[in-house]
Amino acid sequence: MKKSPLFILLVASTGVLVSTSCRDKDQTALEYMPNMYRSPSSETYDPSPTYEDGSFIFENGLSAQTPPDGTIPRGYKPYDYPHSQAGYDSALATLKSPYHFQEVDREKLMAEGKELYNIFCSHCHGTKGDGNGILMEREKFLGVPAYSRDRLPNITEGSIYHVITHGKNLMGSHASQLTEDERWKIVHYVLQLREQLSPAPVAESANQTEA
Fold it and tell me: Does an H or E element contain 94, and which?
């Protein structure tokens, strides 16, 4: 009886699968698509791969190599203001929120900023930004200033962002906890609290006459 090509192919494939499945997985043998079965990548702390003569591919013998100078992690945005008084002064004077240069849903921005502020900031600065957070009330930290103009007359959006990023005095850096975008949302909410604590004085009418 003449066998069809499909039947012959099926029998041959079954034989290959049976023969390879009976071997030890750590033993070099016939493999179906070995590039999918055995990853060519190295684990971080494994020794460097070697050439046929046994010498390391990387001279220092390590798989994990130091990134070349000037490279940054994918998705990371460098922050060019150093953690110093000069860096703070520069951020205070020049650093601007990216939300000034794009159309945003102001209500949504403030809602998200408020949520983040209440999680990361309110325990010290208070839900109203008056410096009376729960840790202040319990005297765990003292001297947290309110955001009002009479207490902090010279802060700007840039200086607020700088302090969230690097920290200042007893306040530590929150850069590892908050993304760049989240920090800016908190900044805008802090500025809103600042306005509520100390609204700008209304200018007197130019037509007003002295009594």
Answer: helix 85-94
Question: Quick check: is 150 in a domain?
Answer: yes
Q: Which amino acid is at 27?
A: Q
Domain extent, residue 144, equals 118-200
* Helix H or strand E encompassing 182: helix 180-197
pLDDT for 58-113, tens place per residue?
A: 888 888 888 888 888 887 788 999 999 999 999 999 999 999 988 889 999 999 99
- Convert the pLDDT of each residue in 179-206 to its tens digit: 999 999 999 999 999 999 986 665 444 4
Is the alpha carbon torsion for 44, 46, 47, 52 positive or negative?
A: negative
Enter the pTM of the model.
0.65
134 vs 124: CA distance, rounded Å: 6
In a domain? residue 47: no
d(C-alpha 146, C-alpha 103), whole Å = 30
